[in-house]
Amino acid sequence: MDNLSNVLDAISHPSRRAILARLAEGPARVTEIAAPFDMSLNAVSKHLKVLEGAGLIHREKQGRDHVIEINGAPLNLVTTWLHDYERFWSQHLDRLEDHFKEKRRKS
Amino acid sequence: MDNLSNVLDAISHPSRRAILARLAEGPARVTEIAAPFDMSLNAVSKHLKVLEGAGLIHREKQGRDHVIEINGAPLNLVTTWLHDYERFWSQHLDRLEDHFKEKRRKS
User: Hey, what domains does chain B have and what are their CATH numbers?
Assistant: First the structure.
């Protein structure tokens, strides 16, 4: 998969978006991330792997713990895609407007 | 799944983004959508179902054909999420800056 697809897939799950929101408040250990959620540590670990694969988090080993930190940079891929898309979209709306103008003119 | 999750899941696949880009140029029949892609009609139909489930397209029956039209509105959910996120993210960067300022002050 390309990077944009990986990022979109990673953020498509509500639990993973909730984890990102938690990490936006500051780095945290896996147990700290899991605490507010009704999820097993195992489930949280799987979600973290998906986020890591998309480059949205990185982890640092501190003694026996893994401290997880957010990396928002790959979200720029989504912003860029949406912007490109809005351009397409507004061209589409322009054409639609022309279409209705033409219709009005004819009637 | 919530709407935002559905939309993100729908656009996470490169073929579905390519289909949306094609539809941004104007409405099209399923066969017309499939033509430029190295995909079976069946594969395209499956992708269209996912896009439809996310509200990103709608289809209109014209005689024996289905004409597919894009609906960009649900993409606003993604834009909103990213904006909320950027707010979190910039707060995080502010705190990081404070952290380094404090470190510099102490050294």
Answer: 3-106 (1.10.10.10)
Distance between CA atoms of residues A43 and A38, nearest Å: 10
Q: Which of chain A's residues have a Cβ under 8 Å away from the Cβ of B79?
A: 82
* Interchain proximity B75–A81, CB inside 8 Å: no
Residue type at B100? F
pLDDT tens for chain A, 107 residues long, are 789 999 999 999 999 999 999 998 889 999 999 998 888 889 999 999 999 999 999 999 888 888 999 998 899 899 989 987 776 666 666 776 787 788 788 87
Radius of gyration in angstroms for the set of CA atoms belonging to chain B, rounded to a whole number: 21
E strand map for A24-76: 28-29, 57-62, 65-70
Chain A CB contacts of B5 under 8 Å are: 12-14
Nearest to A13 among B5, B70, B81 (CB): B5
SS3 readout for B32-91: HHHCCCCCCHHHHHHHHHHHHHCCCEEEEEECCEEEEEECCCCHHHHHHHHHHHHHHHHH
Contact A89 B9 (CB under 8 A): no
Residue A57 with chain B: CB contacts under 8 Å = none
Q: Is the pTM of this model over 0.80?
A: yes
DSSP tag of B13: S
